[in-house]
Amino acid sequence: MPAEIIPIPGSPLRSSLGSVIRVGNQAHRRLQDLRAEGRLPGEALIVDASVLSSQESFIGALRDSGAEVILDTKIAELSEAGTYKGKVRKTPWAIESRPLKNQDFTLGSHSKLIRDIAQTAVKLGVSGVLSPSRFLRSGLNDPKFLSDIEATTYLREALDREGGNSIAIDYSLILPRAVISERRDVEEKLRPLRDLPIDNLFCRLAEFGYDAGPLVVARTFHGIARIHDLGLPIVLDCVGGFVGLAAMAFGVVGGISQGIGEYQRFSTRHWADETQSSNASSSFGRPTRIPIPGLATSLKPDEFQKIAAIHAGRRLIACGDRDCCPQGLASMLKNHRAHIAKQQALEIEKLANVPDARRAMHFVNTTMQDAERKARDLAKLKTGDDTLDRKLARSNQHTERMSRAYEILAGELKLAVRSPIRVKTSMNRIKSNGT
Fold this sequence. Notes:
By secondary structure, the chain is of the alpha/beta class. The chain has helices at about 30-35, 50-65, 75-80, 110-125, 145-160, 175-180, 185-190, 215-225, 240-250, 300-310, 315, 330-335, 335-350, 355-380, 385-410, 415-420, 425-430; strands at about 20, 45-50, 70, 130, 170-175, 200-205, 210, 235, 255-260, 265, 290, 300.
């Protein structure tokens, strides 16, 4: 278990922040090119078991470059009626005719499911595996929870038996957001996790992400703060934007996991609906959306062009980092994934360079105030497109509301900021292993 570090007053302690990139199942070819070009930062990346046949060479290249590769087993998606026939059906341990059931876990470390996961992880040479956990729709009283804990122990045994002693396990806790934010006994219910052979707790909360409102964010942050006594480093999974940055700035979590322009929010809205199974989790045909630099708002390329056509608009939306986008807006729109990857990494790097005790107020007084100014200026523009104008007005209102909420949270969560846990993130695992 990682030690808790109590900063001495006035100490410039800077705890490391974990940033994990989810590769996903659509963009891996472009991300592979970006990695080869040195334009995909990140020391830890999560790859989906559902696309291993097309990503095996990419995984090898990541591993050879010194990055840590974490395997998402997709057990949660394979266990739901609304998702098991979707893209996850290509996962090596998928069962074509039905979702996974408890019976598939009953033989312990010798079950075909656990054995296949362990053998695949060893074959790929990954550094870590997300636990074979399912979505606990009914909360921590769900009988699947204890079964998932046992499966995690079985996976450790299977990995060791297959020669994967050095492959770590990160526990994937997948819950409705309300379970974390509303239940006062969450820490007690989660105590069995303390005895598991795991490094980190990846917390993936349904119907939560970058676009959460003030009340939801406040209650969720307070809920996560209540489980700090577990002593486990916490990574907020599938959360991006200012919500993810705030969670790290306030000491609520030690790291976040997000994709490059995707996996910024997690939803299980159609997971239980079998009629949705063939299309669940599909992003095919989804329009390209690019975040406005310095804002948690994204627009379509044609919307960027409409704003850029206004005299005062271009400077508000174009990337001003010439190392990132040499030709400003043109480069940004042409290679938006490279732009998003670099800017996400820079935001976390800036925050990590701020001493722990000052991170919360830095986020409130610098990050959010800059965002407020930009959102306000954008809302004043008249683009000639009423729909776009309303979108910019809503963004301004949301940014103002969140800024006020974060200012209050910075005071309420002060203890969490002053006593951060030094997170043993995926990246720390690599460094501690001397690689």
